[in-house]
Design goal:
Shape: globular
Oligomer: single chain
Strand order of the largest sheet: 1-2-3-4-7-8-9-10
Order of helices and strands: EEEEEEEEHHEE
Structural class: mainly beta
Number of strands: 10
Length: 176
């Protein structure tokens, strides 16, 4: 749980073991939560929301522990995979928030783990994930969520929320 932070309210850099909970759900999360060990990471985020629609962002890169069972081509390789994530959300009306989240697990062992390939996989996941010839191996594993939460009522508030998640791509299409 140790984190070193530097920055101001609209731009902050954290280095260390920062917890993440990327879900409107209170008891579980489809993408990231505190129910798994916290990974060492570098995070860029805003502490206070930006603009009138309360824009929030968070991006991170993290390192997992050693694994001897990383899928690569038609076999496995050993190493320390990385995890990257991006969260964006707005609150267009008081009490209503909308967010999108994306995580990517990649690299480790003989798998590609360059920043250049990470950016390419982020913008074109159907070309670089779970596709292509077995000798190349895919770049990694991606998941995304779309979330929304409505907080209603006074004096006792009630929340209505949903989360829709998707893993990698479907039918080699970036929109499915």
């Amino acid at each position: 749980g140790t984190v070193a932070s530097i920055g101001r309210q609209y731009f902050q850099v954290d280095v260390g073991y920062r917890d993440r909970w990327w879900s409107p759900f209170q008891d579980s999360a489809m993408l990231l939560s505190t129910q798994a060990p916290t990974l060492p990471s570098v995070t860029v985020s805003n502490y206070a929301p930006l603009t009138r629609v309360k824009f929030r962002y968070e991006a991170f890169l993290a390192q997992t522990s050693e694994s001897a069972n990383i899928a690569f081509g038609s076999g496995t390789t050993a190493g320390k995979p990385r995890v990257a994530g991006l969260h964006l959300s707005i609150e267009p009306l008081a009490g209503w928030s909308i967010g999108v989240n994306r995580t990517m697990q990649y690299g480790g062992g003989d798998r590609e783990d360059s920043l250049r390939e990470l950016v390419k996989a982020f913008f074109d996941p159907s070309r670089l994930d779970n596709t292509g010839p077995a000798w190349r191996g895919d770049f990694g594993n991606q998941a995304a969520t779309f979330t929304s939460q409505f907080v209603l009522g006074d004096p006792v508030p009630m929340a209505i929320y949903f989360e829709y998640a998707g893993e990698d791509t479907s039918r080699s299409n970036n929109l499915r």
